[in-house]
Amino acid sequence: MSTFAELLLNGLSMGSVYALIALGFVVIFRATEVVNFAHASLLLAGGYLTASLHDDLGFWPALAVGVAGAAVVGAAVEFCVMRRYRGQDHSVLAIVTIGVDILLTTELTRRLGTDVLPLGDPWGDSVLTVGSVSIAHTRVAAFVTAALLIGLFLAAFRYTSWGVAMRAAAESPETAALMGVRLGRVSLGAWAVAGALAAVAALFLTVFPTPGLERATSLAALKAFPAAILGGLDSTTGALVGGLVVGVTESLATGYQSDLTFLGRGLGDLAPYLVMTAILLIRPAGLFGTKELARV
Amino acid sequence: MADSDHHADQSPHADRTHQALSVRDACVGYGPVRALRHVTLDVPEGAVVAVLGGNGAGKSTLLRALSRTLSFHGGALTSGTIRFAGRRVDGLRPERVVAAGISQVPEGRRVFARMTVADNLRAGALGSTGSRAAKAGALARVHELFPVLADRAGQRAGLLSGGEQQMLAVARALMAAPRLLLLDEPSLGLAPLMAARIADTIREINAQGTSVLLVEQNAALALRLASYAYVLDVGEVALEGPAAELAASDEVRRRYLGVVDETAAADATRALDTPPSLRRWEADR
Ligand SMILES: Nc1ncnc2c1ncn2[C@@H]1O[C@H](COP(=O)(O)OP(=O)(O)OP(=O)(O)O)[C@@H](O)[C@H]1O
Ligand SMILES: [Mg+2]
């Protein structure tokens, strides 16, 4: 029973990190209707900045620079690349983001080489034990931080003028422009927010028990794709639920792998995609999505 | 505005600066499609001016040119000038037009269906340059005009009836406290009673000091509201004049007010006798 509780808690914690990434993904999709395949490279950029600066600056300032840096990279991608293609078909734009992703990831993995960089976080490998259940401090920190950030984001989305502009632009760009919404700013803001959230996620993808930031980190970030898709690409609630579903599925499948060997190895990595496929078969727009990808 | 008054005193074309809106020789194209040709039109300060015309006449195109949203449709103003309160507005971005005091109620209402009524109204205020107090004042005024919107504040706009959505669309545009309100077929798809209510509201908005440019296919309604009217036909101003004169003119009566005289009836019979070419073409296939 305690194994199950541990797996579940770890899964929820990982899931909240995936939710952070998926949320950024959904924000970009809602604001611009572009599926952003460059998301994992934004995450890698934020993580790399934090990792390379924490020795000199200390952890918290380095994290702040990493978050700000990823936001700037996101904004720069929007400003220098996406804006040039405004008015193009959305599938063209999605392919452009693949190009951006390849460029950024290639440069970052070249810099990383085969290194595994620690991010210098203060939690180390200490473990919290309550009764028979023990969970790493990093996992608790991840869950608390993600929950706070997501709460903050949703409140801003709902109550601030920024949120109203964002939702108006998502629903109808032309009508939003008639209301005086600056679409360029909305889309710039979406990319910056997505970058910042991804940088925070980078931290929690690379802390204990993971060894540190390495090339494979961007692969871990890819798990946010099934999270966003199964939740419904245009739904913020969907991103949260999707993130948690993927985290828990992955954790349970990995934990009980030895009991499931008849299904072959590596089930933990595969399970999120199986769940996504199953959900999409029943609800093609995702759990909370209101429209399918190809909308009229 | 003190500035324009000052000009008005000295300029030999004093009446020009008294126009809230003046469009001169505007041509608009959607790629190769020419949708407006040399349209010249004025909206005097404080007036209600109507633009009539059938489907595809270019009415919505005119409003898009004013609000600078042609680019969303692949169109552009190819020549001509648009001035508002003496200032050129034909090179501005949409948000600057709103800030200059021109708001539009687009064709088909276009409320943000997934947002609440209250958030729709907040969206309308996004382009306003006024203070917090001014925005609160605009909201109070809008709720006074449309009490139903205060009752439904928390409801999703998509769930409102067509008439309520039209009220919301008008209210949303008023949130920016415009000096000129552009209305694209506000009576479209409304029952006569609701259309009459919208007409009353437009009169009320105008009485409170907002100039109105009203685009309509419902000529009877538009000519009752307006003091001056233009008739657009395939992108050109075919007729213009004081609303009362246009309402009395044979051509407008026949084509837009549904008053059938003998010639029109004869035309219609002749049209029925000749089979439409489209049908023959379909039969050949
Ligand atoms: N995006 C577009 N691309 C090409 N042509 C267009 C486009 N939008 C409108 N047009 C053309 O421009 C002309 C004017 O269209 P517009 O929508 O302004 O007419 P309208 O007077 O508003 O008609 P309705 O009463 O049906 O709304 C039409 O011939 C139309 O086919
Ligand atoms: Mg129209």
TrEMBL record, chain A:
InterPro entries: ABC_transp_permease, BCAA_transport_permease. This is Putative High-affinity branched-chain amino acid transport system permease protein LivH. It comes from Streptomyces aurantiacus JA 4570. It holds the Pfam family BPD_transp_2. Its main location: membrane. It is a multi-pass membrane protein. It is found in: Cell membrane. One of its GO terms (biological process) is amino acid transport. Belongs to the binding-protein-dependent transport system permease family. LivHM subfamily. GO terms for molecular function: transmembrane transporter activity. The chain crosses the membrane at residues 12-29, 59-80, 92-113, 133-157, 188-208, 270-290.
Automatic annotation (TrEMBL), chain B:
Keywords: Amino-acid transport, ATP-binding, Nucleotide-binding, Transport. Residues 21-259 form the ABC transporter domain. The keyword ATP-binding applies. GO terms for molecular function: ATP binding; ATP hydrolysis activity; branched-chain amino acid transmembrane transporter activity. InterPro entries: AAA+_ATPase, ABC_transporter-like_ATP-bd, ABC_transporter-like_CS, BCAA_Transport_ATP-bd_LivF, P-loop_NTPase. GO terms for biological process: L-amino acid transport. The keyword ATP-binding applies. SMART domains: AAA. Belongs to the ABC transporter superfamily. This is Putative High-affinity branched-chain amino acid transport ATP-binding protein LivF. The lineage of its organism: Bacteria, Bacillati, Actinomycetota, Actinomycetes, Kitasatosporales.
